[in-house]
Design goal:
Low-confidence stretches: 1-11, 227-234
CATH class of the largest domain: Alpha Beta
Radius of gyration: 21 Å
CATH architecture of the largest domain: Alpha-Beta Complex
Number of domains: 2
Structural class: alpha/beta
Number of helices: 13
CATH topology of the largest domain: Spore Coat Polysaccharide Biosynthesis Protein SpsA, Chain A
Largest sheet: 9 strands, mixed
Order of helices and strands: EEEHEHEHEEHEEHHEHHEHHHHH
Mean pLDDT: 85
Strand content: 15-25%
Number of strands: 11
Helix content: 40-55%
Length: 332
């Protein structure tokens, strides 16, 4: 039976349909727990989509074993991609199967409380469905399951506004995030090279109906895996590569942001701020890749409104400092 909510109105309204998307990749040791927590959700109507991004371990077999052993009302489907797509393209594919009015995201190394979806929906309804992203805090645990405290970040719109927010790299606890279908339909699929889909979605929500939060943890979040890993303490060559990947991921976020801004009413100040970040990050990617850099690339930062002094400092740091590895470990 479909649940209803009164909310003091004359007529009882049907609860919104929700799609719960569990994304996995090479997580054979923890994916079963993540899927069990999805199947244990107390909310209905709920569609569960488990999508694996071309794992080369036994993740898919583990997921299938859980599904075969559990009665799940036919509301759960497993999508297994033959090749690794990357986070942005992977979520795009999963969204093609999603039917819910609200989309709840989950990762294969995290576990949701049994009432996570219910709590997110309640917060959204209490906000009269205005917000386009809903988040919560999480309980952090290490690789052995030891509690590491509560993890919580301010909402994007609490950290900055307008052009300041447009230019900001703000933290988002993506493992706790949900968003509306209308937000996805407004902006469309994400860039295929995007790794930080949570930041992109939060920024989209800030441009539209805003964000809201459930004031308690709803997820047990594994630290030390995925994007929560720390910079490696290793050779200078590997440190350069680590930074190149880091800057490339940030560059994809700001390119996505510029693309999303193009679909909004004209905001020259915000667009200029993002274009500058793109130029700066292109410079940093070039420097950290150790490929030859051109005078035109250096000048592009200045033409974008940036500081030539800053660009020169980065050049000295990456190309001329013999103590770069030591510097990065201590201060980066």
């Amino acid at each position: 039976m479909m649940a209803t909510v009164e909310q003091g109105s004359e007529y009882a309204l049907p609860m919104p349909a929700v799609s719960y998307i569990l994304l996995t990749y090479n997580q054979q040791h923890c994916a079963a727990r993540a899927l069990e927590s999805a199947l244990a959700q107390d909310y209905r109507p709920l569609q569960i989509i488990v999508s694996d991004d071309g794992s080369d371990d036994e993740t898919v077999a583990v997921l299938q074993e859980v599904l075969d052993s559990r009665a799940h009302e036919g509301n759960c489907q497993l999508l297994a991609h033959a090749q690794n797509l990357g986070i942005g393209a992977h979520l795009n594919q999963a969204m093609e199967a999603a039917r819910g009015e609200l989309i709840v995201l989950a990762a294969g190394d995290d576990c949701s409380d049994h009432d996570r979806v219910s709590a997110l929906v309640s917060a959204w309804l209490e906000d009269n469905r205005r917000s386009d992203a809903i988040l919560s805090s999480a309980r952090g645990v290490d690789a052995g399951g030891k509690p590491m405290g509560i993890i919580d970040y301010p909402l994007a719109t609490e950290q900055a506004q307008g052009s300041a927010l447009a230019a900001k790299w703000f933290p988002v606890l993506g493992a706790t995030q949900a968003f509306t279908r209308r937000l996805w339909e407004r902006f469309g699929p994400l860039r295929s090279d995007l790794m930080n889909e949570d930041i992109a979605i939060s920024y989209r929500a800030a441009l539209m109906g805003g964000l809201c939060k459930v004031p308690r943890p709803l997820v047990t979040y594994s630290l030390g895996t995925g994007v929560s890993r720390q910079a490696p303490d290793c050779t200078q060559s590997l440190l350069f590569e680590h930074n190149r990947v880091l800057y490339a991921n940030q560059l994809a976020v700001f390119k996505q942001r510029l693309q999303d801004l193009s679909q909004m009413p004209d905001d020259p100040e915000a667009c200029a701020a993002v274009r500058l970040r793109v130029k700066e990050l292109e410079w940093l990617v070039a420097l950290s890749s150790k490929a030859p850099v051109s005078w035109s690339a250096f000048r592009a930062v200045g033409r974008g409104g940036g500081s030539a002094v800053w660009a020169l400092k980065q050049l000295l740091k990456y190309r001329l400092s013999p103590a770069y590895g030591f510097w990065l470990r201590r201060f980066a």
